[in-house]
């Protein structure tokens, strides 16, 4: 089993991919093998920094890149009769792991019910209950790294409609996949839903942040025709 994280070096701006490979069944005795791919070299290399003994379920789990680090929701396999979830991060500059605590409300939930997203430049956690289908509660970390700053943003309660909350749009609306395989845009203030016209189940959708890089813009200008605006 493996988990991926995508980000960039804070000064060179080279893209990097970090891969955590679990070589055996989850156990407190086996930390994952950590490998890093760097755009400049085009090669994978092993990371010497010790990986913490936390686990993530599968490569389809969510990630968020902010403050020079990629973040995942992880859980501690050493906990018996319950769960201890947290935010695990890997800094693309220092190539070191760190962790941030969640509120007990989130830390005690089944880890597959949680996903980490970006809300502007802040970390957000989406919690969807295992039993209460059609429900999602969204929490935001107001001050990066401060576990006491987790704040409930709002809840979405759409029985028989909501399958999965996917992430935020630039206008603050939330993209949702539905039981009927539609992708909807939901306004948390008015609770109005707009159909995007895109069809697919929740496993086929992914929402992430996009921004044009200098290299991309240089490519656009280089291929622009003289008559183009």
UniProtKB/TrEMBL annotation:
Superkingdom of the source species: Eukaryota
Pfam families: FBA_1
Domain F-box associated beta-propeller type: 2-203
InterPro entries tied to this protein: F-box-assoc_dom_typ1, F-box-assoc_interact_dom, SCF_F-box_component
NCBIfam families: F_box_assoc_1
The protein's name: F-box associated beta-propeller type 1 domain-containing protein
Organism expressing this protein natively: Camellia sinensis
Lineage, highest ranks first: Eukaryota, Viridiplantae, Streptophyta, Embryophyta, Tracheophyta
